Amino acid sequence: MTCIEHDGPLVIGGGLAGLSTALSAQGETGPAKVLVVSPAPLLQSASSAWAQGGVAAALSFEDTPGLHLKDTEAAGAGLVDHDAALALTTDGRATVEWLAALGAPFDRDADGGFAVSREAAHSLARVARVGGDGAGRAILSALVTATRAADHIQVWEDGRLRGLVQDGDGRIVGAVIERGGGALVEVLASAVVLATGGAGGLYGRTTTPAALLGEGLALAWGAGAEILAPEFVQFHPTAIDVGLDPMPLATEALRGEGARLIDREGRFLLGAADDADLAPRDIVARAVHRAVAEGRGAFLDARTAIGAHFPAEFPAVFASCLAAGLDPRESPIPVAPAAHYHMGGITADTEGRTTLPGLFAVGECAATGVHGANRLASNSLLEAAAFGRRTGRAVAAEASGNGGARVPATPAPHLPPDALLELRTAMSADCGVIRDAAGLKRLRSLIDRLERAHGAALPLVAARLIGQAALDRHESRGGHYRSDYPDTAKSAVHTRLTRTDSDVAMMAAAVASTTAMLATVIATI
After folding, report:
1. Residue 366, helix vs strand vs coil
2. 317 contacts: CB under 8 Å, gap ≥ 6
């Protein structure tokens, strides 16, 4: 294995969070030398490029960061970290202005201000958009251009994270990268930033790139980092159900403009009230799930509210519909819930610091507490950019550790495609929108069997973290719904997972153990 010593931070991930971190890595003496590693050419693998809604921020005259904070906490179902959410919403306007200064072409109103739309669980319009439904790709394109022009940033566009390197004191001092052709490279750095995205690819029905398999989450846990609330997965209620993988997304902004959810008989799924379909995503997702499960079907009807304006106002959704042989101006769009965002992740503060020295996490792979049990729509792009900027400044000041000899890093085994397909099918069936003990135990047994056959591959480790935490939470809250525990507990508690000695032995031997599982520490907040 080749070893490279990089004089600066190493950022794993080329999405909005990773590039915001790299661009903002400015210290007192100037920019830090940053190496960004992406598994594919920039724009091709990042889930942030797929985002349609936009960036939530208090931008209008009648809005304030305090109102944005209130909506964020209400959506998070009792598990939002107040201080982190306050930092996020306070940074909102400055973050949008920073993105605009980099070239993000946000829609503007007649006075030149940011045009904003309303999405579910927001008390008023506050989502800055681009071309109606093209925010993610347009914003990321601006950051890619800025990154390629930045002298302090080097980019590898053929590298996949395979392991983390620690010194004798447990500090993260580098990472093992698999480059094109399968060559392994050990990169030593002053700090390692995980911006590896979420875990939507673990699900058979997802709106995210299939390559997002929770690998950063699994490696961080294996190195000893704390994992926060992994059971909380958000399922977008309106993925376009036309048999594609990943499923195209019908942005929530459609409902914000008046599109309605109906069954095949034309009955409203959530009631006739004008704002009924703008309930928090977990509520809407369960309503859509039940309609599909009961055979009534679920459809998004935009014929009256948007109609002939659809191509101009929502070109990305319109193109997805036409590609599937649908014209949303003339017929309702068939929809179903799909894994969309992971609220849980690697425990991190607002500057990306994890519980391991030298390791930072930002974006969807991190759990800062701002989303709680249920993410408020369009807060994800805001978090990626706002906390990416904070993380960049923090890692620029990070000094390399000197804890002695490095601990050899052994890359995790790959999971064969047929085994991954089996896992994805089981995750959607047994750890999806509606869960119960029988299904979660069935999932655990499947993971046990796959690990005995293929070793502790990272997707299996990540799936076990999510599934076991879901099994251990005996209540329904936010994105986690248990049909056998349908009520919400009076006390809101966080799930915190830490590695035990038995878990280390399990991973080293690549054998699953149902008796030596995860140490779950519940901390009442």
Report:
1. strand
2. 52, 133, 240, 248, 249, 250, 251, 254, 310, 328
Inter-residue contact 45 to 61 (CB < 8 Å):
no
CA–CA separation, 365 vs 272, rounded Å?
37
* Cβ burial 147-173 (10 Å sphere, 16+ → b, else e): beebeebebbbbbbbbbbbbbeebbbb
List b or e across 343-353, with b for residues whose CB sees 16 or more CB atoms inside 10 angstroms: bbbbbbbbbbb
- Picking from 245, 217, 203, the residue whose alpha carbon sits closest to that of residue 364 is 217
In one letter, which amino acid is 424? Answer: R
408 vs 411: CA distance, rounded Å: 10
pTM of the model: 0.92
Which residue from 244, 240, 269 is spatially nearest to 327, judged by alpha carbons?
Answer: 240
Question: Do strands 359-361 and 191-194 pair parallel, antiparallel, or not at all (unpaired)?
Answer: parallel
| Residue 495 near residue 473, CB atoms below 8 Å | yes
Beta strand residue intervals within 305-454, DSSP E? 333-342, 345-347, 359-361, 366-367, 406-407
Residue positions counted in the chain? 525
- Residues 166-201: pLDDT tens digits? 998 999 999 999 998 889 999 999 999 999 999 999
**Looking at the predicted structure, is the pLDDT value of residue 519 above 90?**
no
In angstroms, the Cα distances linking 183 to 12, 160, 163, 394, 415 are 17, 11, 13, 31, 18
Hey, which residues does 346 pair with through a beta bridge?
227, 366
- Catalytically annotated residues: 281
8 within 8 A of 34, measured Cβ to Cβ: yes
Q: Which whole-number Å values give the CA distances from 477 to 15, 120, 286, in the listed order?
A: 29, 17, 12
Cα dihedral 377→379→382→385 (10° resolution): -110
Residue range 230-250: mean pLDDT, rounded: 96
100: enclosing H helix or E strand: helix 92-101
Whether residue 359 contacts residue 189, with contact meaning beta carbons closer than 8 Å, is answered with no
Place of tokens 């089981």: 426
Q: What is the mean pLDDT of the chain?
A: 91
pLDDT score for 402: 55
